[in-house]
Amino acid sequence: MASSTGFSVPQERKLVTELPGPKSRELHERRRAAVSRGAGTLADIYMDHGSGAILVDVDGNQIIDLGCGIGVTTIGHAHPEVAAAAAAQASKLTHTLFTVTPYDNYVKVAEKLAEITPGDFEKHSILVNSGAEAVENAVKIARKYTGRRVIATLDHAFHGRTNLTMAMTYRPWPERAGMGPMPGDIFSVPISYPFRDPEGMTGEEAAERTIDYIVTHIGATELAALFVEPIQGDGGVVIPAPGYFKRLSEFCTENGIVFVADEIQAGIARTGAWYSIEHHGVVPDLVTSAKGIAGGFPLAAVTGRAEIMDAVQPGGIGGTFGGNPVSTAAALAVFDIIERDGLIAEAQRVERAFVERIGDWPSRFPIVGEVRGKGAMFGVELVLPGTKKPHPEALKAIIQHAASQGVIVLDSGSWDSVLRFLPSVVISEALIDDAATVIEQKLAELSAA
Ligand SMILES: *Cc1c(COP(=O)(O)O)cnc(C)c1O
């Protein structure tokens, strides 16, 4: 089970100081004097090293990481083979700029992306530095290809923090507020959100609601692209009902609209498939990848139908560091590790472990409205007892309690009320059990209150 490489840190939680410990607190003082407040942190625990699903802080505490730096270290922290591949590349060639003089790693990553992304047709890729940059490029490509301007996103979407992508991100606070003007021609349209939709609404019915909104607010022939997260991440691990994306993608095809799956968070083996859109049985025109693609090195991509990807004139997309030799070397190692160690199956194992361990939370704790997820991507929707009203205070209290006990968990949701787990797919059942026990202490206390 898990990685055949073993772990350099025992896979167990161990606290040797209070959290944050003295060295973390000292660093935090220095940070306050030097780092922008805008880069907020979830837990002020400063990390030193990590292995597998465990992070070790500067005070020597071993912490269970159910966040992976928002779903990045899917294969485990500081994987030795990724480190070796990056180090070897760093001492060979660190930069040429692919669009000045190219190199093989970039081509190899593009070949691999063509292989693992859904769809049996010719696919081309562009490599960039970050998720938001991938989304921006997908917008440019879709506009150039269609000759249209308008972009639609789904309610509760998260697509990034750059000027264009913050306008494609649903909630105003904290991602957008006060930082306008927003770029135009971007519309948010209703999603399928089974927990919050009318009882019994099917995926097809939710899709008709989305389509009606597009037709009446935008006009189908005005729309260049529809961006969807097949499983929303920051939006609260929202998984649209079966049939929803199938109907939407048909509508896009019928109307010449580019269907873009933003797989930056849910892609690259995290949900028990290479890409989470596979669970919906849909083949998108374009796919964005980032977060988990290079084991922690910055790399992102847009991959899709060759005729769409080639619509842009040479020089129209790209950037200095995009597809950097070291990041692409790391990505090639990640692809190898996922295949050799069967990490897609490991993500499915993590899903079974979560379902078994926390699946009964809604019946045990009145503040838990729903537990949902795929693979190593789970959300726990917190509500005021007896209602579906969001319970953001509970989320805050749970995250703080967990961090103080050495368990890192993430927030999410438009109302800040969905606890989010994005652990490494190599996490053991024992660590899931330990982390769940810590969270249950607070769930019980809050449910009793
Ligand atoms: C994180 C994320 C982005 C933005 O990626 P960055 O690398 O932070 O710019 C875009 N889309 C989704 C779905 C994400 O989860």
From TrEMBL:
Keywords, in A-Z order: Pyridoxal phosphate
Residue span of region Disordered: 1-29
Superkingdom of the organism of origin: Bacteria
InterPro entries: Aminotrans_3, Aminotrans_3_PPA_site, Class-III_PLP-dep_AT, PyrdxlP-dep_Trfase, PyrdxlP-dep_Trfase_major, PyrdxlP-dep_Trfase_small
Cross-referenced Pfam families: Aminotran_3
PROSITE patterns recorded: AA_TRANSFER_CLASS_3
Cofactor(s) required, per the database record: pyridoxal 5'-phosphate
Family: Belongs to the class-III pyridoxal-phosphate-dependent aminotransferase family.
Protein name, entry field: 4-aminobutyrate--2-oxoglutarate transaminase
